[in-house]
Amino acid sequence: MSDLHPEKWDIEINAKSSLLDLKFKDIWHYRDLLVLLVRRDFISFYKQTILGPVWFFVQPVITILFYTLIFGNLAGIPVDGLPKPLFYLAGTIIWNYFADCLNKTSTVFKDNAGILGKVYFPRLIMPLSIVLSNLIRFAVQFLLFIILYIIFVLKGEHIVPNAAALLLPLLIVMIASLGLGLGMIISAVTTKYRDIAFVVAFGVPLLMYATTVIYPLSVAQTKYPKYSWLIKFNPITAVIETFRYGLLGKGSFSWELLTYSIISTILILLVGIVIFNKVEKTFVDTV
Amino acid sequence: MSKAIKVENLSKAYQLGDFGTGTISRDLERFWARMRGKEDPFLKIGEINDRTTKGESDVVWSLNDINFEVEQGDAVGIIGRNGAGKSTLLKVLSRVTSPTTGSVKLRGRIASLLEVGTGFHPELSGRENIYLNGAILGMRKAEIKRKFDEIVSFSGVERYIDTPVKRYSSGMYVRLAFAVAAHLESEILIVDEVLAVGDAEFQKKCLGKMGQVSRNEGRTVLFVSHNMAAVKTLCTRGIVLANGQLIYENKQLEAVSFYQTNNNTRSTFEHHDDLSSAPGNENIRVLKFIIQPLTGESISMSTGVCFEMVFFNQKAGINLDATFELRNSDEIPVFHNGVLISTNNNSKTGFYTIKCTIPPNLLNAGNYSFKLIFGENQRYLLFGADDFIGFEVENESKGSNSSLAPGVIHPNLDFTVSYQS
């Protein structure tokens, strides 16, 4: 009988499953959860504050103020002849988006052990919601960038955007993927061994100095011609340089550097997803 | 009827102890073994999971080769002592963690309620949390919208629905959380002890809702509880787990009674060794506790019960008293009666014997356990022991009806019947 009518089951739980079974169907079914989680993050961010969403602006404004004073004026690092606040803001908002995605994703299992240990939903929803929540922050900060941009143009600064600005959506996807991918790799390791969490805590702020946030790539190349490959090797550099080149008209843009960055982003993201997928099945037992 | 759940050779191993510097070398060893396609060297020893004894290996099998099937529409109670593997089984079934070996096959959507209020965010309002929690449990937004009013009225917190849940009382919080979960539209519902929350009225409401879910809507329910009364009323079948193994499966009443008799078999206790190792403390040592029928060989409903306790008292010159609390298998106290042993501060150091009888035709059939409390001046605890000793009252068939009558007691009552036309 059973041979004639093979039993049909909707869900099968097995000890092992294929590494690349990413359960996109499940994720699609839970898309409302994704939206609600993003909403939750956004709302709970400014609950019980007087200024509300204005706080999204405060952090980058203060940051670029300090960067302008210390790196721009005190240390005198040249900025390709651009207005300093605009130069720093361009680097900062991209770097912040990356760092926020990375930090939050790398502790996703630990932070959400309560929920994840009690209910099943596609685990990938959690890091995806982090990336989307931070995208909203990025959008708000990008708005600040546009405002500052218009102010400087009205003041008569010579800023000319070019066609590379059209790459903006790609740059955003790249930076999100980098944060997500690296974060997922780290999250997988930290479920069992917390050591990496310490490295992340001091490593991410240091990594910023190996990225062209507070200086342009051209300066690094002229000052340290031998070691500038290290900065180029960092895939975030290409994203920031392309962003500045496209929107501000100055910066080091090359297709080779961008292509290298795209390839490494895809690799990091793939490795991240596969590792995450493997760990999510049993992390409850070890976290 | 078709099968809703099929569990085959399901096992789950856990590693005991801490993950520290010592474990990375072992992880590498395991990884290397798996790479060569060999068996995991640390999972070979199939030790039984008994938390009370110290084992040889630090890998423990919380579930060991479990096999069972559940028909669609069945309400299955999963019972067992703490650490028997109940929660692990539910975790595997609800896909929170995956099994070490074996497989589970499910038909239909599955929703699990391992804890109420999972994912509630304290800063969000009740309304926002209903949506969020519903989505976490797998509901679509449109589905929640459709049921929103029903959920709110079931929870009974209409007035606070736009207030952040951090301002809720714990009872309101739980009510709202259960209300969301109870309105899930899944073919299989998994529930773990969530009924131990809320006030009596709400607990009743929850039990009623769960009964409705399985009986009227034909959905399959898996229910883990220590509350045998709830298992009896809610479930249609029962599964008994012990030390990670499935030891009994039958209709719910049989499963519950199997669990209770196997969990509670002592009915005499005698201590022969020296005083210092007898149960008790520096004040009191209990040396003997015998429970037997007043008449006949075994205790049944009409035989009555006689119990005798011998203990050694250390505290001289106080007002000593002893209290016996009898509880049935649903943990309901049947009586809580005490005896004043000395009233004029004249207790003596030495052996005391207390005898007492419970009259025939009083206790209903079932399992009982004694709780002992020794006190001074009826105020200060000298020694207490929960579940010190247990015994069983056998059922007696009366007339054509041989099934167990409900009720805490079952006295012989004189009914007078008169008829008027």
UniProtKB/TrEMBL annotation, chain A:
Belongs to the ABC-2 integral membrane protein family. GO terms for biological process: lipopolysaccharide transport. The chain crosses the membrane at residues 50-74, 86-103, 124-152, 164-189, 196-217, 257-276. GO terms for molecular function: ABC-type transporter activity. Residues 51-279 form the ABC transmembrane type-2 domain. PANTHER family: INNER MEMBRANE TRANSPORT PERMEASE, TRANSPORT PERMEASE PROTEIN. This is Transport permease protein. It is a multi-pass membrane protein. It is found in: Cell inner membrane; Cell membrane. The lineage of its organism: Bacteria, Pseudomonadati, Bacteroidota, Sphingobacteriia, Sphingobacteriales. GO terms for cellular component: plasma membrane. It comes from Mucilaginibacter gossypiicola.
From TrEMBL, chain B:
This is Lipopolysaccharide transport system ATP-binding protein. SUPFAM superfamilies: P-loop containing nucleoside triphosphate hydrolases. InterPro entries: AAA+_ATPase, ABC_transporter-like_ATP-bd, ABC_transpr_TagH-like, Bact_Polysacc_Export_ATP-bd, P-loop_NTPase. The keyword Zinc-finger does not apply. Keywords: ATP-binding, Nucleotide-binding, Transport. The keyword Nucleotide-binding applies. It comes from the Bacteria. SMART domains: AAA (SM00382). Pfam families: ABC_tran. GO terms for molecular function: ABC-type transporter activity; ATP binding; ATP hydrolysis activity. GO terms for cellular component: membrane. Belongs to the ABC transporter superfamily. Residues 43-268 form the ABC transporter domain.
